[in-house]
Design a protein that fits this description.
Elements lengths: L7 H17 L11 E6 L6 H13 L18 E5 L12 E5 L15 H5 L7 E2 L25 E7 L8 H16 L4 E6 L1 H4 L1 H5 L8 H14 L6 E3 L11 H23 L10
Parallel strand pairs: 1-3, 1-5, 5-6, 6-7
Antiparallel strand pairs: 2-3, 2-4
């Protein structure tokens, strides 16, 4: 066994590989479901699409950009997009789907607001174009009339730029609370993803390993925990890839750890449907 104190780079690589192995080996406890469907929700510019691209990069082994990202004032994502990550020679099984949505805005009944519960129940299909003025209609070609358990959302992840935590408007916090209530009514677990931690704290920018030692990061985690009414244990800090040309093991460790937390949360959802005679093989 190599000594981590002597070769931190090697140990980071080992940790990254162990997380990839854990994720690849995960299976839902319900046999009718092959992948956990994870819904990403958050304000415009919070980093939802960047998170998918970053996770995709961690699995591919190089920086990749599949989902549209940018700095526009309005959401670049205007459709409901379930994103799959392709298996590779090193990761043979990817047991989750990241579902991207349009960014939340302060106005009432804008975009995702009118369709959120319908998405949770599995009625909305890939490439549905959000209409801020009207919810999806049952006669729409993108409306799934009889969704099964595999079509529903198994975990909701609220994505927030950590530097914007104290700047969240009352309207935005109210939206999060309403969304949380709708998810709770359907017994869907939720996590909060705090992005851009490296931009928020010089100590973390210097070394991502310091993320849980940073007083500022911890303070923001507690703040968002209070604002949204969630346990501190479900608030997860990450750094997305946005200007890097190569992947970094420590960045991947934070990203992949977030996925592990999502899968564990989804497993809690599947526990309600667990039947020992129909166990996933």
């Amino acid at each position: 066994m190599r000594n981590c104190g002597g070769e931190p780079a090697y140990c980071r690589y080992q940790r990254r590989q162990a997380l990839l192995s854990t994720i690849s080996g995960w299976k839902p406890s319900v046999s009718s479901v092959k992948e956990a469907r994870i819904l990403l929700v958050g304000p415009v510019g919070a980093g939802k699409s960047s998170f998918f691209n970053s996770i995709n990069s961690a699995f591919k082994g190089y920086v990749s950009s599949q989902a549209n990202t940018g700095t526009a004032g309005t959401s670049l994502t205007t459709q409901f997009r379930p994103y799959y990550i392709k298996p590779s020679s090193s990761v043979t099984h990817v047991p989750f789907i990241l579902c991207d949505t349009m960014g939340l805005e302060d106005g009432v009944n804008t975009g995702l607001d009118v369709d959120f519960a319908t998405i949770l129940k599995g009625h909305i299909q890939d490439k549905y174009q959000f209409n801020p003025l009207m919810p999806i209609q049952p006669d729409s070609p993108h409306f799934h009339k009889s969704p099964g358990l595999k079509d529903k959302i198994h975990c909701v992840v609220f994505v927030i730029d950590i530097s914007r935590v104290k700047l969240l408007s009352d309207k935005m916090i109210e939206k999060f609370v309403v969304f949380r209530k709708k998810a709770n009514q359907l017994s869907i677990p939720q996590l909060v993803l705090l992005t851009k931690v490296d931009e928020a704290c010089p100590l973390v920018a210097e070394d991502l390993k310091n993320v849980y030692q940073s007083h500022y990061i911890n303070k923001m985690m507690q703040e968002v925990s209070f604002q949204l009414g969630v346990s501190l244990s479900v608030v997860v800090p990450v750094k997305n890839y946005y200007q890097e040309l190569e992947i970094d093991p420590q960045t991947d460790i934070l990203l992949l750890n977030a996925v592990v937390q999502m899968l564990r949360a989804a497993e809690g959802y599947f526990d309600d449907f667990y039947n020992p005679e129909e166990r996933s093989e």
